DNA sequence: TTTCCACTCCCCAAAAATAGCGGGGGATCC
DNA sequence: GGATCCCCCGCTATTTTTGGGGAGTGGAAA
């Protein structure tokens, strides 16, 4: 049983996925995965309102640009469905009843996306949200069999794609921030859960003035303009948890 | 090759995990998984300051209650590390340099948690955050070999545990997390990046009063006590990104 | 040992946020 | 066609937060 690093078997593809180092390699791998699983398309992309984020896949260019131009992101039931769920979703179990959704679906089929689809939502730090989708043209039974058989693998592939994308994508620099003192953490946390300064001070059994000093200190360390900003920064840097 | 539904082999455990229907079953499975992988402890739990959220695992009761009592959540480097990362983390690669962190570590070892650990961060909709951790007492080399060998399986197990927990936990219903309007999102986002109300209003080209209405509306929808609370909630539910 | 830093406390004036009242136009869904 | 929601604007008043000072303790590091 040879383990061929550059092969196209399941294990070889997984191994290459775990060691990929460039976006081009990921693009190549996504095409190999498409062939391996014999589906029409596979696509991995980030989702946010900016729209200009990372993505790779096998969708026709025409469809991708049409999708962006028309702002389909806002009406795509797949995106809506994935955003609200944790587990992978089969496209046919989504709500396609809206008029906009049906138009979108027709448009997608006309662009050769396929009538069947399966999407895995993925979430990372700082509110990152991405999707890994496969689509094809086949019967409901065949698609169910396929997704049932490869479910576990697909979750892993989606996971690795996101991991690589996070590693390779610039603009995600760790933003080295000065550590907060325990008291500062407590102060910001209490403010983050809705306490007023007076309440927070009472909870910590210190004077409100002292609490204020902590907040000011934390604000300075975090480079924040005001309390709200400081709490927001501490939250998004994982310094506090609410 | 018999597929034994009630067995304790890898495939059997995975199958049971995918079909579990009660929290008790999950607790039983986590113990079987611990035996299967021959580690000291496995634990799956949600992370937020309420503390009273779902969790199951094999940690001694004494340690769990001590952890909660002392608010270790706020100083646990594993939590901090997982919160900022997407990929699984080996405990020994975290920052244990702080005094509080070292005390925590000593306390943990004294409670029999083990010197080695591996944690997988998991994120769900509405800002849900959970961790799946394994810990044991062994050499660095043995632990590296173990995690390297079972990495993929562990990611899947963590994924399934979270899926089941989300399905089984009733507490996710009462807070459907009413969606914010686009304007409300913009308003909270600007406040989150440090703008004052006046600046935010000017940026959005609306009157400060109108901006105020959005903030109040968002605060109401989020059940927040004040602006800072609203921004914090919106952030931790993934409604805004800064 | 001295020099940091975290922690604690206090005053005051200015700025910001909150709370309440009122008004109107437009879209969409039932 | 009415209900509901989003989008915009006006006013006044009160409370809270903020930013600028200054001052003392203890412990840890250099």
Write the layout of secondary structure elements.
The structure is a homodimer of 242-residue chains.
Chain A: H1 10-19, H2 23-37, E1 41-46, E2 55-57, H3 61-69, H4 77-84, E3 89-90, H5 99-110, E4 116-123, E5 129-136, H6 140-168, H7 182-192, H8 197-204, H9 208-222, H10 227-236
Antiparallel strand pairs in A: 1-2, 1-5, 3-4, 4-5
Chain B binds a DNA duplex (30 and 30 nucleotides) through residues 99, 181-184, 196-198, 206-207, 209-210, 212-217, 226-227.
| Tally of strands of chain A | 5
CATH C-level class of the largest domain in chain A is Alpha Beta
* Assembly state of the chains shown: homodimer
**CATH H-level superfamily title of the largest domain in chain A:** Transcription factor LuxR-like, autoinducer-binding domain
- The helix-strand sequence of chain A is HHEEHHEHEEHHHHH
Largest interface: A-B, 51 and 49 residues
The rounded distance between the terminal residues' Cα atoms of chain A is: 50 Å
Helix/strand structural class of chain A: alpha+beta
Give the amount of beta strand of chain A, in percent. 5-15%
The overall number of domains of chain A is 2
Q: What count of helical segments of chain A does DSSP give?
A: 10
Instruction: Classify the fold: give the CATH topology of the largest domain in chain A.
Output: Beta-Lactamase
Return the CATH architecture of the largest domain in chain A: 2-Layer Sandwich
Strand numbers in spatial order across the main sheet of chain A: 2-1-5-4-3
For the biggest sheet of chain A, the summary is: 5 strands, antiparallel
- Provide the gyration radius of chain A in Å: 23 Å
Mean pLDDT across all amino acids of chain A: 86
Uncertain stretches of 5 or more adjacent residues of chain A: 1-5
Globally, the shape of chain A reads: elongated
Helical content band of chain A: 40-55%
